[in-house]
Amino acid sequence: MNGSLPTIIMFVALIGLMYFMMIRPQKKQQQKRQEMLGNLKKGDAVITIGRLHGVVDSINNADHTVTLDCDGIFLTFEQSAIASVIPAASNGGTTIEKKSPVTPKESEEEDSAPEDEEKKS
Fold first, then answer.
1. Quick one: 63 exposed, middle or buried, by C-beta within 10 A (0-12, 13-18, 19+)?
2. What does the alpha-carbon distance between residue 35 and residue 12 come to, in Å, rounded to a whole number?
3. Contacts of 49 by beta carbon, 8 Å cutoff, 6+ apart
4. Is 92 helix (H, G, I), strand (E, B) or coil?
């Protein structure tokens, strides 16, 4: 019995250490994530687990889905697919800006033509 007592104490200490080093932080992180998803609201900028950036358009708590506006394209995701939330207050209440495609100006095309001819000579 005397030889097994230190072994039992060491085993209990190891389990206690494992709880405080692994299980407890994981539970805190899970609770923080649930709180983040619970505070999700329309207008929040979010990033999905696939690194897609969008703005929350609607939330369906019954189905646990969220619809994101990604530059005018509306996509539906599971709420668990949201990796991080940027609240509307911290992003200035603005949405993701839509940019038009860049088209070269005619003057730039004309300017580049003589340079090409000079290089060929």
1. exposed
2. 33
3. 81, 82, 83
4. coil
Q: Would the pLDDT of 58 be above 60?
A: yes
Dihedral angle sign, alpha carbons of residues 112, 117, 120, 121: negative
First to last CA, the chain: 98
Mean pLDDT, the chain, rounded, equals 80
Task: Go through the chain and tell me how many residues it has.
Answer: 121
The full 3-state SS of 22-47, as one line of letters, equals HHHHHHHHHHHHHHHHHCCCCCCEEE
State the virtual CA torsion across 46, 75, 100, 95 in degrees, nearest 10: -30
